[in-house]
Amino acid sequence: MSNTHDTESTATHAVDEPREVRRTHRKSYAAGVPAVAVALKRGVEQMGAVRTAQTLIKLNQRDGFDCPGCAWPETPGHRKHAEFCENGAKAVAEEATRRAVTPEFFAAHSVDDLRTRSGYWLSQQGRLAHPMYLGSGDTHYRPLSWDEADAVIADELAAMDSPDEAVFYTSGRTSNEAAFLYQLFARSLGTNNLPDCSNMCHESSGAALGASIGIGKGSVTVPDLEAADLILIAGQNPGTNHPRMLATLEKAKHNGARIVAINPLPEAGLMRFKDPQKVGGVIGAGTKLADDFLQVRLGSDMALFRGVARLLRDAERAAPGTVFDQQFLDESCAGVEEYLDLLDDVDLDEVVEITGVTRAEIDELARAVATSRRIVLCWAMGLTQHRHGVATIAEGTNVLLLRGMIGRVGAGLCPVRGHSNVQGDRTMGIFEKMPESFLAAQDAEFGITSPREHGYDTVAAITAMAAGKVRVFVGMGGNFVSASPDTDATADALRRCALTVHVSTKLNESHLVTGRRALILPTLGRTDRDVIDGVAQRVSVEDSMSAVHLSRGSLPPVSSHLRSEVAIICDLATRVLGTAHPVPWQELKRDYDRIRDRIERVVPGFDDFNIRVRRSDGFVLPHPPRDTRSFDTPNGKANFALHPLEWVDVPAGRLILQTLRSHDQYNTTVYGHDDRYRGISGNRHIVMVNPDDIASLGLRAGQLVDIVSEFDGEAGVEERRVRGFEVVPYDTPRGNAAAYYPETNPLVPLGSVARESNTPVSKAVVIRLEPAASA
Ligand SMILES: Nc1nc2c(c(=O)[nH]1)N[C@H]1C(S)=C(S)[C@@H](COP(=O)(O)OP(=O)(O)OC[C@H]3O[C@@H](n4cnc5c(=O)[nH]c(N)nc54)[C@H](O)[C@@H]3O)O[C@H]1N2
Ligand SMILES: Nc1nc2c(c(=O)[nH]1)N[C@H]1C(S)=C(S)[C@@H](COP(=O)(O)OP(=O)(O)OC[C@H]3O[C@@H](n4cnc5c(=O)[nH]c(N)nc54)[C@H](O)[C@@H]3O)O[C@H]1N2
Ligand SMILES: [Mo]
């Protein structure tokens, strides 16, 4: 076998450019035959037929690689032959493509030229194949050697006045081993500036759960979901973003679960599922998933949860001992009396007004919560990316606590994570404020002194860059400029750095918005074979339910110049910190088992890491509330949160905009222009608006508008604008609109963040629509 794969010619790859918007019927079900067809088509386009077959066979299998798509767990014990979904297959095709972006490509395209291309075009050009350098004033990236690249970074780091002039960003695909070494390098250098995508994602979940139950991770497993009798899914679109979750929900359903979807949009995946891996899913009508659909207004979930809590309290008072889990409340919880007092203020008519759902629907939800014996609450970005995201998740937690739904089979809290290893990265220390226990253990293990002052999170890092306080920005994966809020402000901030470095698999916008100098360092992905000194290496990842397992890529890399993330970090660290540094970087690089030995000695729960991770299905990390109903909070109890009730008002003549994912993208990576389940295709520059709002705002369907956001900043009302978006009538509540991320990120103000978690408020942007100048 050759060491690298034959690549396609280095010619530029044409893409389907956006066309006019096409509308078809919104789908009433997810998956089914079209999903399989789409998955295979994309695979063959990018990889060719043989590589497609070789790759999909290894996806999520015991000896294969972990899907780089989402963080939904593989089914323990009985993996299906093909444990993948349409969107997982697209993620794989995107990574395992035979197309390569070579030095010749960069010679043919100036940076200015590349800046005129869409993100979609950039990512479709293929895998980055060689380290590239852009010097001050250069028009084109040019190739350089890894040694030269490390020297550039080392020079800039050495020129800093303080280690805090460096920022080390991480996206959530980085393996446990690479993440551990990356934070170890940053802290050896002397900074906690470790922002990550989680700051924009589930940070609100971590903050809320940490305070309430003492651990920022979900408390359920897949078998719990399958055994649940009531599953609430709030602010999540699993049909698109976690398609394998639908199979779990279908199973739960067959076991008798009732599913309640809480969402402003009637998302297809929540309604009905046709499993493409089963005969019934191919020819039958599929399984009806959601029994109830509560079409709530944006940002009203906290009010809904509090309304339910009030109804639970009233029912308990009417018939004591029938609703609350009194024993659990007495033995394990604190703050319940104060919380019950807070519920005095709940006005259920007001809850109806805030949420936009009927009193009967709220009563029925409360009845279901009061009478079900095993309840799971699932959520994602629809709850976290709000100003009151932390309070909203804490409120949902309060409801479950009243019913004792923690540490019980078939019940619990289920924040559904995004990136495939975002949870593992945090476990490994990617966090600007890791607890003292972690830092102390790491210092003792390696004989270094980690800094104790907290570092920058994502928003703080942008603010610091804008203030000229950052010299070097390093991105371990991700697409910082496009994923962050306030695109123009973030771009200006990045341009103030002396050096921006991206360790990447694919070309993206962040390579084109650079500091004075810039580097692109191409790395291996999950699907690639990782061989160091002739020895095949494996990495580990942690899924959304705290299960850790191995992942091994098997495809020959697209070029012999790619290095693993581990190798990149270790070589850079050796260069910067010297061979006498107490961390044996080169020894760790040569054998990832040695990295795992160190992780075992620093991070709790990784005992016998190398042995247990080799078991089929790996192992599950400890979770005190789930395992033993114990709570690692200052008072040792599960704490009821006491936040004042908050929601989102719609100012007159304005709309509240949520920015979300289409069915045809992975975060900032656009796969195509087909938001299939929503029946919108051809073009992503659209805004979904309720037909009555279209009429009352004096607009018409199909009209082109500018979207202008309004934000009450420190210096008065700030406005931001994106131009030329088509108005699409859609079934969204009055006053609420929706448009795609990242096209609308320029509208999200940097100063608009969730309290406590500092997560950008991407799901509630105040906007007005203005007829486009050209219309
Ligand atoms: N194919 C694919 N898979 C992915 C991703 C991808 O881009 N593509 N991204 C990955 C990542 S990093 C993440 S974090 C996850 C994201 O997974 P999701 O959170 O499902 O992603 P979003 O598209 O942001 O969808 C938010 C959902 O919440 C709803 N919502 C918005 N605001 C509210 C609200 O106020 N209340 C309620 N109840 N609902 C609301 C929206 O209507 C939408 O259904 O998916 C991961 N998986
Ligand atoms: N308006 C708005 N903004 C949002 C959101 C939203 O809902 N609305 N969602 C937020 C959320 S939930 C998230 S998680 C962030 C996502 O933010 P990021 O994680 O920063 O963005 P991605 O688009 O996932 O990053 C894609 C890039 O990662 C690189 N990459 C892919 N795989 C690998 C790998 O294995 N190794 C390395 N080194 N690089 C790799 C590729 O070069 C690719 O171009 O965006 C956030 N931004
Ligand atoms: Mo995410």
From TrEMBL:
Pfam families: Molybdopterin, Molydop_binding. Residues 655-712 form the Molybdopterin dinucleotide-binding domain. GO terms for molecular function: 4 iron, 4 sulfur cluster binding; formate dehydrogenase (NAD+) activity; molybdenum ion binding; molybdopterin cofactor binding. The keyword Iron applies. Signal peptide: none annotated. Keywords: 4Fe-4S, Iron, Iron-sulfur, Metal-binding, Molybdenum, Oxidoreductase. Residues 1-27 are annotated as: Disordered. Residues 127-502 form the Molybdopterin oxidoreductase domain. Its cofactor is Mo-bis(molybdopterin guanine dinucleotide); [4Fe-4S] cluster. GO terms for cellular component: membrane. Residues 1-21 have a biased composition (Basic and acidic residues). Belongs to the prokaryotic molybdopterin-containing oxidoreductase family. This is CbbBc protein. It comes from Gordonia lacunae.
